[in-house]
Amino acid sequence: EYGKLGSGTTNSSTPVQVSGLSSITAIAAGSDHSLAIKQGGTVWAWGRNTYGQLGNGTTSFMSAPVQVTNLSGVTVIAVGHWHSLALKQDGTVWAWGYNGYGQLGDGTTANRSAPIKVSGLSNIAAIAAGSDHSLTLKQDGTIWAWGANYASQIGDGTTTNRYTPVQVDITLSNGSGDTPTQPTTTTPTTFTDIPADAWYKSYVDALVVKGIISGYPDGTFRPLNSITRAEFAKMVILAIGESPTTNTASSFTDVATSYWAYGYVEEAKELGIIGGYPDNTFRPTANVSRQEIAKMVVLAAKIPPTTSYRADFTDVPSTLWSWSYILAAKDAGIISGYPDNTFKPANSAIRAEASKMVEAVAK
Q1: pTM across the whole model
Q2: On the chain, which terminus has fewer CB atoms closer than 10 Å, C or N?
Q3: By the 8 A CB rule, do 237 and 267 touch?
Q4: First to last CA, the chain
């Protein structure tokens, strides 16, 4: 999916060779994209590119490696959830991709589809990337960090996101080695990775109270992760107050009655919320797209699809199969789109977005 294997093909249950690469000196993998350094210091990338994390100046997914633009002399690479880092021979650090928490270190929260130089760093010896934050080790032994800080991962004694590098606060203990200072804590939120001021927090909290969503065993919600079709089917069924079906015959060849989400998927099918694919599959583990969510939520809430086309979004033409559902969801206040007047219908929805859409129709 997303071309993340780099072989020009889709899923494979056995190893496949990444296309067109040789003389590789280092590799790194993110959530849905990968990087490689070739001898000579150029960087190559493939996979998901929603936020420009491939660094080739576009946001198009790539199923085969493409060269990261305007970047050479690279010795080390690191990859976060949706962002990428590179350390050059001259000791500078470069970043690109998702920047919602400031993890690119350029003083903004603007996503970047091509590498930019991280502000104020020089003489860097090593780099590392967390899910949504970044770290460097300077030649003088100091550590600098930037990006998401909702769980004090920056190590500066606060929970404030940092858009440019700040020095990690490390003190020497009594002869026992270097020990990071204990970060200050704040009133805990429902999940450790949801900041108190996150735009989606109220939606997630409401769904938790209603028993529609839970989270992961480690106490996280992972709001930026994609959500599968099976997971969303379960959310929708619970949101409208329905229960898993007791029907023992599956409507889809790839959803066995023993599958964990079978009851929810089958109930959604019986209620006319989902229909599946022409080959009689549901593809439960595939990521659900924003347009698929729009359709499911509209049907679940029994909102009539819009019958008169309007060009409300620049990327939702009248030829798009889902336009009537997208416009109906917009009219109902369930969706709003992006600041650039797009909806990005084919993009995989993230858990934060899905929570907002489901909460709008939850009983």
Answers
A1: 0.50
A2: C
A3: yes
A4: 34
